[in-house]
């Protein structure tokens, strides 16, 4: 009965938002303008901010009350994992527990948001959406550094870059007047897109299909990431459920047909020009070396030595020669054409040019129809979509997302932040805000929070504060009545207990063993290396050969946009916890730390280190009994430490 009443109220809220497009069809709720909402004035004593007024009003419909507030240890641990992805120290927990200030928790939140580890944590969430990878396809012959895009994203979060700037720079930093060339690293969102092998000995009819598949991938990633829409479903026909036409798809695909992958500099043109010229000279000399080695002359060493000397002279004599480039794109219209006087295909790039695409009938690039101007989706701007007139249209596209589709784009990103704090978004299909996606459980709350996010400068840090300082987020995870009446927790009458993602789990182990190297940024490293003690964020991501630890623990497929992490429980995960060299290494390090303490303090020290609390009497008794019974075993402390690191309490956060 409670579920029926809940569904009815959601339906009535959505009906009140009914709007039609220029063709008379009803728009999905997510396309409609943001509304001004007055929060219900209910249970004002419990509520800490506006979020709580919406939440508790909906709970009353289901005859539920909020759970009790979480205790201070739980609260501060939850905040640390949410904002920086690692636990606090025992000393930090104790200091918070003993702080009598009314602003004690708000102060801790502000400190965490100001820490460089905040950007590392939240940057990883964005990289899931951006299908980040550390190594581009070998056939691209790129010399750029993919990790610079990852570091740019981390820095953007730490600087609290407003979301509109965050979007524009990733789609078109190089086209923004007065842009900082260092921000060309942001172009990695496009420059690190998956690329498909094109065997140019094949006829153009086949290669056109491969190129069209790449354009579809770009449109799909853009639509799902920024708009929460499956625009790519309109490649072959009008979208079956959303107001997106096949012409809309090719209007956007034309943007991606007008760019090419390219390494981009991070300095002004006058500084870069001599570097580019020097690199061409070095490339020519390297080719000479290759040709000479093939011929194997008698004086091979002498000839290659002379060429090496020329290369070193050019490199040392050119300022900024070794400054890395970044993965990005540049303006160039691509045409797939047959080779002249030969079999096979050529990829003909018209540098600095743009092109409009013809509709591919049934998605087949060899069956074309009308040509469509590059423009935004026709459902926006009262059916008069914005035309893309500046180059490829990348900057026009970014502006259209943030202006014409502002309500939709803002709802999508607010929902993504909510999802990371509660384990599920107010819309549980975070990259599907169309008609086939789930409707919001709290539509008025999403409207109000989104409108205030925009009004507060699209600030992520403002949004984090608003959520974490709410009584809703600060609830306990223990509420038997809520679990019985609302098992899916749609009413948020308790805080969900959540399992750590693989990054937080690994990073937490390194931190509690005192083995974490916390320097921010830099090149990616191999997670298989036993000496690698960097945060998991800096582990190398390979699309073709994902690290085994990541693959076993639900890390997303880096070939595609990932709106949410899967959470599985498998035998392989248990075997990893029991037998992996990484777990054994961390257990050994922790055991050494324990053995440095007096014998009677070791168990208590272990619990303070891992769980930021004292052991219970039962835990003390079990630990002492095990250690007494194995007192002749040389690895007993290793085994004890291993058991604690593999425990559920270390893997989950309340």
**Helical amount:** 40-55%
Radius of gyration: 28 Å
Number of strand elements: 7
DSSP strand content? 5-15%
**What is the number of helical segments per DSSP (H or I, 4+ residues)?**
26
Q: What is the domain tally? A: 4
- Low-confidence blocks of residues: 1-19
How far apart the termini lie comes to 29 Å
In round numbers, the mean pLDDT is: 94
Structural class of the helix and strand makeup? mainly alpha
Please list the strands of the largest sheet in the order they lie side by side. 1-2-3
How would you explain this protein's 3D organization?
By secondary structure, this protein is mainly alpha-helical. Helices cover 47% and strands 6% of the residues. The strands form three sheets. The protein has a three-stranded antiparallel sheet. The chain has a two-stranded antiparallel sheet with strand order 4-5. It has a two-stranded antiparallel sheet with strand order 6-7. The protein has helices at 2-15, 50-61, 72-84, 90-97, 104-114, 116-129, 147-158, 163-172, 188-191, 204-227, 246-256, 269-295, 300-316, 394-402, 406-422, 443-455, 460-468, 480-485, 502-512, 548-552, 571-579, 581-595, 602-611, 617-629, 636-645, 648-651; strands at 259-264, 326-338, 345-351, 357-360, 368-372, 498-499, 652-653. It is built from 26 helices and seven strands. The chain has four domains: 2-114 and 405-497, no CATH class; 162-265 and 326-402, no CATH class; 269-316; 502-653, no CATH class. The longest helix has 27 residues, at 269-295. It is globular, with a radius of gyration of 28 Å.
């Amino acid at each position: 009965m409670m579920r029926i009443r809940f569904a009815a109220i959601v339906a009535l809220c959505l009906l009140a938002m009914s709007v039609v497009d220029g063709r008379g069809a009803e728009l999905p709720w997510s396309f409609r303008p943001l509304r001004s909402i007055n929060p219900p004035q209910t249970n004002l004593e419990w509520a800490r901010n506006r979020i709580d007024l919406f939440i508790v009003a909906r709970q009353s419909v289901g005859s539920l009350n909020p759970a009790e507030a979480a205790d201070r240890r739980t609260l501060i641990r939850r905040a640390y994992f949410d904002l920086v992805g690692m636990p606090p120290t025992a000393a930090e927990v104790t200091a918070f527990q003993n702080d009598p200030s009314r602003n004690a928790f708000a102060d801790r939140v502000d400190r965490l948001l100001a820490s460089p580890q905040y950007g590392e944590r939240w940057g990883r969430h964005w990289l899931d959406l951006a299908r980040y990878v550390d190594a581009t396809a070998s056939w691209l012959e790129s010399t750029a550094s993919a990790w610079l895009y990852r570091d740019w994203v981390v820095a953007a979060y730490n600087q609290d870059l407003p979301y509109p700037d965050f979007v524009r720079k990733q789609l078109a930093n190089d086209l923004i007047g007065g842009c900082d060339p260092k921000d060309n690293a942001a172009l990695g969102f496009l420059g690190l897109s998956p690329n498909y092998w094109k065997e140019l000995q094949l006829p153009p009819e086949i290669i056109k299909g491969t190129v069209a598949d790449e354009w579809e991938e770009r449109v799909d990633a853009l639509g799902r990431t920024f708009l929460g829409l499956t625009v790519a479903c309109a490649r072959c026909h009008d979208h079956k459920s959303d107001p997106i036409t096949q012409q809309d798809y090719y209007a956007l695909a034309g943007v991606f047909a007008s760019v090419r992958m390219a390494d981009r500099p991070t300095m002004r043109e006058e500084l870069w020009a001599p570097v580019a010229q020097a690199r061409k000279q070095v490339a020519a000399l390297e080719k000479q070396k290759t040709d000479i080695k093939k011929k194997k002359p008698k004086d091979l060493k002498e000839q290659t030595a002379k060429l090496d000397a020329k290369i070193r002279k050019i490199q040392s004599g050119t300022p900024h020669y070794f400054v890395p480039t970044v993965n990005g794109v540049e303006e160039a219209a691509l045409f797939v054409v047959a080779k002249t006087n030969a079999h096979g295909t050529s990829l003909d790039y018209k540098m600095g040019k743009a092109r409009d695409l013809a509709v591919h009938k049934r998605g087949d690039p060899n069956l074309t129809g009308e040509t469509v101007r590059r423009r935004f989706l026709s459902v926006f701007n009262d059916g008069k979509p914005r035309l893309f007139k500046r180059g490829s249209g990348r900057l026009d596209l970014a502006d259209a997302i943030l202006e014409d589709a502002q309500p939709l784009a803002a709802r999508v990103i607010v929902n993504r932040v909510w999802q990371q704090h509660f384990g599920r978004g107010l819309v549980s299909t975070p990259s599907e805000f169309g008609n086939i996606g789930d409707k919001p459980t709290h539509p008025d709350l999403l409207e109000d929070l989104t409108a205030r996010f925009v009004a507060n400068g699209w600030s992520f840090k403002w949004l984090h504060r608003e959520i974490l300082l709410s009584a809703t987020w600060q609830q306990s995870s223990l509420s038997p009545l809520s679990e019985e009446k609302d098992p899916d927790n749609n009413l948020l009458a308790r805080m969900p207990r959540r399992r750590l993602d693989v990054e937080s789990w690994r990073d937490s182990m390194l931190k509690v063993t005192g083995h974490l190297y916390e320097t921010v940024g830099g090149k990616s490293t191999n997670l298989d290396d036993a000496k690698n003690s960097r945060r998991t964020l800096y582990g190398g991501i390979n699309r073709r050969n994902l690290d085994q630890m990541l693959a076993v623990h639900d890390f997303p497929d880096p070939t595609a946009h990932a709106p949410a992490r899967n959470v599985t429980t498998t035998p392989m995960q248990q075997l990893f916890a029991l037998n992996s060299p990484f777990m054994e290494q961390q257990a050994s390090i922790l055991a050494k730390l324990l053995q440095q303490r007096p014998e009677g303090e070791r168990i208590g020290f272990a619990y303070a280190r891992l769980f930021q609390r004292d052991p219970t009497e039962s835990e003390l008794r079990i630990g002492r009994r095990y250690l007494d019974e194995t007192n002749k075993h040389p690895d007993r402390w290793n085994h004890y430490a291993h058991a604690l690191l593999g425990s559920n309490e270390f893997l989950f956060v309340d």
